[in-house]
Amino acid sequence: MEMRGIVTVVSVSATHTMQKPNAERIRLLAGLGVEGDAHMGKTVKHRSRMARDPSQPNLRQVHLIHAELLDELEGKGFSVAPGRMGENITTRGIDLVALPAGTKLRLGTNAVVEVTGLRNPCVQLDGIKPGLMNAVLDRDAEENLIRKAGVMGIVIVAGEVRPRRRNSRGAAAGRTCAVETRLNGYSHMDRQSRDGQRRFLDRFRHGRMGDAHAGDIFGTR
Fold first, then answer.
1. Is residue 166 over pLDDT 60?
2. Residue 112, helix vs strand vs coil
3. 40-70 pLDDT tens trace
4. Contact 72/80 with Cβ under 8 angstroms?
5. What is the per-residue DSSP string for 1-41?
6. CB 80 within 8 A of CB 128
7. Which residue from 16, 154, 161, 179 has the least number of CB within 10 angstroms?
8. How far is it, in rounded angstroms, from Cα 168 to Cα 121?
9. What residues contact residue 151 under an 8 Å CB cut-off, 6+ apart?
10. Structural contact between residues 172 and 84, judged by C-beta atoms closer than 8 angstroms
11. Bridge-partner residues for 113, per DSSP?
12. CA–CA separation, 99 vs 104, rounded Å?
């Protein structure tokens, strides 16, 4: 199954700040992440995780958020610009949080990112505006927690990613970055399984990424 969307904004920061400045383009490096970004590397770069075990594999090389979430937040009184919540890539037209772990996202001409799990909203978001953390959380009909703050991924194939630009008439201009998703057959419901992260880490360490199981939930950056 394939779906298509666009990349609207790309962002990168060399320091561990919540906000990432927007850029004209970013380069994804296979097995590492976004070139020049503080979270680039084979092993974990998020400070809280480094304090626990700096040898852990970095499954959070790239953070993606769907622009539709920013639209939703605007309607709730939260004006949040792309990159403000720490994402590297802002997309439109793809329901990122519904994608199972193992989904391949083709960005631009060559780059491929594999989804490793959901981004878990944290209290740091309230530093942007009080109440923002709760605004990116929800409950389904069965009261299960829904996390809407985007997804994390690793770079499988290197490449340059640029946002889609529009001219003064609103038409697409310049190079377009399409997002193609290739779903691996795992159900959305599997994502919330508690042992999903252990299974995914095992497959990551043993080079069996194609057999990854959904279920990873990631905390703060």
1. no
2. strand
3. 999 987 666 656 767 789 999 999 999 999 9
4. no
5. ---EEEEEEEE--SS--S---EES-EEEETTTEETT-TT-S
6. yes
7. 16
8. 36
9. 63, 64, 96, 97, 99, 115, 116, 117, 118, 119
10. no
11. 105, 155
12. 9
One-letter amino acid for residue 41 of the chain: G
CA distance 24 to 115: 23
Give the pLDDT mean for 159-172.
Answer: 67
Max distance between CA atoms of the chain, in angstroms, equals 51
- Distance of alpha carbon 71 from alpha carbon 8, whole angstroms: 13
Strand partners for 26: 161
What is the DSSP secondary-structure string of 29-84? ETTTEETT-TT-SSB---HHHHHH-TTSB---SEEEEEHHHHHHHHHTT----TTT
Q: pTM here? A: 0.77
Do 45 and 13 meet the contact criterion of CB atoms below 8 Å apart? no
**What was the pLDDT predicted at 181?**
61
Do the strands 217-218 and 111-119 form a parallel or antiparallel pair, or are they unpaired?
Answer: parallel
